[in-house]
Structure formats: C-alpha cells, structure tokens
Amino acid sequence: MGIPLGVEDYRRLARRRLPRIVFDYIEGGADDESGLARNRHALDALLLDPARLTDVSVRKQAISLGGKPADAPLVIAPMGLNGACRPDGDVALARAAARAGIPFTLSTASNVALEDVARRAGGRLWFQLYVVHREHARALAADYEALVLTTDVTVNGRRERDLRNGFAVPFRLTPRIVLDASLHPAWTVRQLRHGLPTLPNVEAGPGGDASVQAALLQRRMDAGFCWDDFAALRDAWPRRLYVKGVLNARDAARCMALGADGVIASNHGGRQLADLPAPVDVLPGIRAAIGEATLMVDSGFRNGRDVVKALARGANAVMLGRAVLYGLAARGEAGVDDVLAMFKADIDRTLALIGCPDVALLGARLHG
C-alpha cells in the first residue's frame, strides 16, 4: 500500500500490523454487530445542503469548548488498552491531540498512569471515569480539566470476536495467539521490549486495590450507581463534568438539571448493545432538551464530512475513537498526527464546498 489517503487506508494498515486478537478488540462490536452498521448508515444517510455564491475564501473550524479554544471541533475519545496497539499509546494520542489543539480524554483503563500522561504529554487533558470505584482525586491532583463519566457500561457487552479469540488482560498466551504474534514480528518485538499492557490507574500493589482492578478487567462496574450518586459526584468534582452514553432527551435534561456541563451522545461505538439508536440520529432531540449547553457525539465517525453533518445536527464537537487508533497502530504517533490532519483538512474542504465560512453557521446545512 502507498501513502495512506484516508482513514480506511489506515484501517487496512492497522489490520496488517496487529495480531488478529488486538485488531478484533478494536474493530469489534456487540452482539451481531448490527450497531456498527447502523452508526455508519445514519451518517451516510445525511446529506449536506450547499449555499452557492457565498464568500468562503476564509473558513473557520476553531471553536470554544469547555471554556477554552480548540483548533477544531474534535476530541480524542476515551479508549482503554491503547498500549495493545503501541506501547505508550496513551501518551502518543495525548501528544498528538496537544499538537492538533484539541482535548484528549484518558480512560480509566489506560495503560499509562494518569499522572505520567499529564507529565509527559501536556495539552488539554480530560479523564474518563468508569464506575468501578468512586475515586477521582488523582485526576484533580494531576490537573485534568474535565471529568467524563461513562454511564453505559453497567455490565460488559457481549463481543463475540473477543469471546472467540479469548481476549483478556493480561493476555493469555495460547498456542493460537503465539502463532499470530509470530506473524506480526514488529508488534511482538515492541510489546516484549516494553512489556505487555497493564492497568496502572487501578492496579493492585502498594496503594492499589486488587478488587477494583479485578472489577475493571471483568467489566463488573458499579451497577448501583444512580442519579443520587451522580449528584454527589457533581458536588465533589469542582471542574467541568460531562456525561457520556446519553441517548435521549429525558436523560440529557436530567443531567443538566443536576449540574452537568454537557453530555456526550454515544452508544459506545456499538460495543455494548447492538439495538440502540445511532447517536447522530438523537442529536436534535438532545439539543432541544439542553439548550446551549455543550453537546458532543461519537460512534462511527470516519471523516470530516461526518463531523460537519454532526455539527449541523446540533453537536458542538465530535469524539474520535477507532479512527485515531488505526493511525496509532499503523504508524504510531505520526499516524495519529496524520489522521487528525486528515479530519481537519476534510472539515475545511467540506465547509468550502457547501458555502459555509464557519462551523458555527452549520445549523441549517442539511438537506431535507
């Protein structure tokens, strides 16, 4: 393959360079994976409505997000086990986000400690909280500017690819996995040199909690976490707080009433339950419910045209997940830089071609 020209090229490269067990972990969805197709179909079905004879000699995609400037309406989404793609993958993603002028969200299940990411990467850092325990003081002490509460993982989704492959952390070295790793020597050498991924934010040991680590590994989240607990978290966390996993206006409005700074429309990239609406489809209803508050969206975004459509549906920004992981797996930090640059260039080109000089003016630019 020549120089990657789009996210799909990076996807194909990632598939070549990762063992199947790792690529399937990234790529796979829940149940029959119909949710993955629905996410893409919903975006593909939206068409843009161009305005002609409009001065677009200067285009603007920079926005204000969370009270601070962002160079594009993008955020890197929280993703666990990025070290399975590349050692120090969390740091690489955070550094690329900083260079691109956008926030990076670190997962509870990251493979680099949250303090180390802050020290080594800089930039705008958000921390994603899985409800396996109710501790967020470390993120505050490390100066993370926002907390992202993930609400759609009360139990783990059924991911048949992972079940077939025997995916687990730590990796269980079955003969099949060893053979697959031997067919991907560059990946294997990197992993052996740096050590297989661990979960330092919750790992057992001095000051750690073995029960918390076990719960995260087995996706045994706190299924009792409810609205009262969210209100207590809001009281305890003094900075911006976003709620991820919202898919209807009812929950969005309640989040805002209890003090959230915004919500993220998400079906977890189709990884938890197949039979959920595509997040881009629910944006107008959520926007009507929360007024001018921050509204972000993820799940299925593969190019800047998708981003423009989401903004036209009412989102302020889009969180990118698999797209940047393909770049990370294929070319490391440089691949993430390239994918983010592709998104920015595509957003700019789309604005020009639909006659819209500013992403803030996209509200009426969808056909039909």
Q: Spans with pLDDT under 50 lasting ≥5 residues?
A: none
* Sequence of strands across the biggest β-sheet: 3-10-9-8-7-6-5-4
Taken in chain order, the helices and strands follow as HHHEEEHEHEHEHHHHHEHEHEHEHH
Q: What's the alpha carbon Rg, rounded to whole Å?
A: 20 Å
- Strand fraction equals 5-15%
* Class inferred from helices and paired strands: alpha/beta
Let me know the average pLDDT.
Answer: 93
Number of strands: 10
Instruction: Summarize the amount of helix as a percent range.
Output: 40-55%
Q: Main β-sheet: number of strands, strand sense, barrel status?
A: 8 strands, parallel
What's the tally of helices? 16
Describe the structure.
The chain has a single domain, classed as Alpha-Beta Barrel (TIM Barrel). The protein has 368 residues and is α/β, with parallel strands linked by helices. The mean pLDDT is 93. The strands form two sheets. Strands 3-10-9-8-7-6-5-4 form an eight-stranded parallel sheet. Strands 1-2 form a two-stranded antiparallel ribbon. The chain is built from 16 helices and ten strands. Helix 15 packs across helix 16. It is globular, with a radius of gyration of 20 Å. Keywords: Flavoprotein, FMN, Oxidoreductase. This is Alpha-hydroxy-acid oxidizing protein. Its cofactor is FMN. Belongs to the FMN-dependent alpha-hydroxy acid dehydrogenase family.
